[in-house]
Design brief:
Blueprint: E1 2-8, H1 14-24, E2 34-43, E3 54-62, E4 67-73, H2 76-101, H3 110-113, H4 115-134, H5 156-166, E5 170-175, E6 180-186, E7 192-196
Parallel strand pairs: 1-2
Antiparallel strand pairs: 2-3, 3-4, 5-6, 6-7
Length: 199
């Protein structure tokens, strides 16, 4: 498994890279097909965000959907611990799901499987909102990041599963049943919604 650690306007010391490698070695027991792990460090310069000024984002490239986790804390070590735990939880859930499809367990509902994630997502959303509210409004918003993903057709259940692995509140996919671009998204509580583009 290749691990790439880089900092966005942050110098990454060798001892931290070693710590990351030791921390992420545990996730290989859940999936031995991990090709590459990207770890990105970012420092929030806003002094009012001192408690969550260090951000760690981990992206695992595996054969299948990308698995991603992120966390903010007062230092990079704590942020890595939190993000690592979230990542391990996602891999554990994916491994449990694979066992379900082989008939060893009765399937758990999506609500039960994602119950622990709801609190995490809510806390992350509050943190992001606090950061957004603390920044001055200098005019219209700018697009600061663009991403492209391959659009493999899938059904809604697979899209929900991949949304949970990525850790977002929404997931854009090509609906194999309807033949149109669709978005699944998280609503309040444990409910989900879907938006479809039709002509």
């Amino acid at each position: 498994m290749e691990i790439v650690v880089r900092g966005r306007n942050v110098e990454v010391p060798d001892h931290y890279r070693q710590h990351v490698a030791e921390k992420l070695a545990r996730i290989e027991r859940y999936d031995d097909h991990i090709v590459r792990v990207d770890v990105e460090l970012q420092h929030e310069k806003n002094p009012r965000q001192a408690e969550i000024c260090q951000r760690v984002e981990i992206t695992c490239r595996v054969r299948g959907p990308v698995v991603r986790a992120e966390a903010c804390a007062a230092d990079f070590y704590k942020a890595l611990d939190i993000a690592g735990e979230r990542l391990e939880r996602k891999f554990r859930q994916a491994a449990d799901r694979r066992r379900v499809h082989h008939g060893r367990h009765t399937p758990t509902s999506v609500a039960a499987a994602t119950g622990a994630l709801a609190d995490t997502v809510l806390a992350d959303a509050r943190s992001a909102l606090a950061v957004a509210e603390s920044e001055p409004d200098d005019g219209p918003a700018l697009v600061v990041r663009e991403k492209e993903h391959p659009a493999k057709p899938m059904n809604m259940e697979q899209a929900l599963f991949e949304m949970e692995l990525v850790g977002h509140d929404f997931y854009l996919f090509a609906d194999v049943d309807r033949g149109c671009p669709s978005v699944v998204y998280r609503r309040k509580g444990y409910d989900y919604g879907v938006i479809r583009l039709v002509e």
